[in-house]
What we know:
This protein is α+β, with helices and mostly antiparallel strands. Helix content is 38%, strand content 20%. Strand 12 and strand 13 form a beta hairpin. Helix 8 (327-356) packs antiparallel against helix 9 (361-387). The longest helix has 30 residues, at 327-356.
Amino acid sequence: DQLLLQDLAQWGQGRYYFSEDAYNIPRIFTKETMKAIKSYLVEESFYPKLNFNSPVMAGILQMPVLNGYVATTPKQTAQLVLSSSHGDPVLAHWQYGLGRSIAFTSDAGGRWAGSWVSWADYNRFWGNLLSWTLPRHSENNGLQLNSSLKGTQGLIALESSEFSVSRQSDGVVVDPELDRQEIKLEAVAPGRYEGAFTARHPGVYFLNVSQQGTDGELKTASGGLAISYSPEYNYAGTDYNYLQQLAKAGGGSILGDPKEAFADNLYPVKAVFDLWPWLLIIAVLVLPLDIAARRLNILPSDLKKGLMIIHNKFKKLPLPEEAPATLNRLREKKSMLKDLQQDNKIKQETYNNAQANLPNQAEFKSKDEERKAAASELEDKLNSQQEKPVSDSSAAPSEERMSRLLQAKKRAKK
């Protein structure tokens, strides 16, 4: 797209080259290199071109030829008065703060401006340069410049001693960022002209206004406008009405005494909180305990023993001695007692049947002897169990268990 490439070159302040042959690219680079390293001294004859009517060129209508100059680039806020045939600056001036500066890129005579020495307006030209750079107090020539601020707009009011509404009045404003604004002053009354410019940032704005006089002379006036801070920073005191509106909107009150800030007179605040996150955390913590209780078959006695160990550990107390009998031994004794009761039940039924059939005395005595022999055998078994050694991990049966076994034995003898 050649149009796009041309636009890109123009936007970047460059040059556009079109070539269908790749071998031409080194030639293009060579040409650009030669232009980049060329001498800044331009020696050729030309007539300076007047770009606008500046106070420096007051009373000068024609200029002789120049034979050379030093190629330069004007600054953004500079005013280009004279330029060469290539558009390079020849004469430019600049308003910086309350001071002024001017640049002439040719010489004052001899090598490049030999024809200027014999020029009739030669002295006038340099006199205008010096007068503009070092202005006199009487240069306003009946112009009075006033400035003011209204919101984000700067206002310029120019009053002229010539009561006319057809005088062209132009103004130039340089803001704190050194950006330049050009404005046109409009006549609002005979001898009074007004204009406006944008003033959004704090700082000093420099103003320069020019007006064409009746005799063709260009009159100028300079001034400035200082903005310290944005208007929103202006302190207008305490707005109690606005504070009362805020307090009423928020359901509060205005405190007249600092002690009222600590008064307990606030309304209770109720809020709803979700409990499911906490319940979920509790369920996650309890789930491993539930799984352990199901898998390990933990009995209440084991839990009690564990709690005692934890309690003694935190209290730094010695662990209690183990119980006299272990759980397995108690279960064994319980099983033996159940077997004994079953045998006694069978013997009792046998005895009852024998009584019903009226057995003889000898047979009854034999049955009685068998019952006594069984009881004696059971007693021997109990005695043998008592005489067996107990391991270190278990102790002798408790007195309560022994009393229960003795009672069972007595019942069996009856």
